[in-house]
Design brief:
Helices cover about 20% and strands about 40% of the residues. With about 160 residues, the chain is α+β, with helices and mostly antiparallel strands. It has one domain: Nucleoside Triphosphate Pyrophosphohydrolase (Alpha-Beta Complex). Strands 1, 2, 3, 4, 5, 6, 7 and 8 form an 8-stranded mixed beta sheet that branches. It is globular, with a radius of gyration of 15 Å.
Length: about 160
């Protein structure tokens, strides 16, 4: 296993909660970049901060396959130029409001650079769950997001310079 860059316990309303199941999961985190902008998700039916594209790694699936699948499922963007691992693997503990469970998640972050903004149709359930915005690199510092996501994004920005 690669070196863990940090461990993080989400504070406040998304801290793990007593009385709920705890699920351990390996996840990818996709930091999606097109030109000088980064894509962040906004979950429609929660109070979540803005989020990177994240998702579980399925059995028999390698991490790069998981990144491609999650990016296409959640955003529709499929003209991917490169997928590069980021040296910022982390373990985060938090409450997943929309699943009503605690999570111990190992995140494997990747910088995903797009060639174009070509998209395929996104499933209706994904459209109902979240929308997304493109944020310029200069504006990222002012965006409210989960701290572990901010750290992964910061590592990606350093790497892409």
């Amino acid at each position: 296993m690669s070196k863990i860059a940090f461990e993080f316990d989400e504070p406040g309303e998304y801290a793990p909660r007593d009385g709920y199941e705890t699920v351990e999961r390996e996840n990818i985190a996709a930091i999606i970049k097109y030109q000088d902008k980064y894509l962040l998700l906004k979950y429609n039916n929660t109070n979540y901060s803005l989020s990177l594209v994240t998702g579980g790694i399925e059995k028999e699936e390698d991490k790069v396959e998981a990144v491609k699948r999650e990016v296409i499922e959640e955003t529709g963007y499929n003209d991917i130029k490169s997928i590069t691992p980021i040296d910022c693997i982390n373990i985060s503990r938090f409450f997943v409001e929309h699943k009503k469970q605690n999570r111990v998640a190992t995140y494997y972050p990747f910088l995903v650079t797009l060639n174009t903004l070509r998209q395929v149709q996104v499933a209706e359930e994904e459209i109902k769950e979240h929308s997304f915005s493109w944020i310029s690199e200069d504006d990222l510092e002012n965006v409210e997001m989960f701290e572990n996501h901010r750290r992964m994004l910061s590592a990606a920005k350093k790497m892409s310079k």
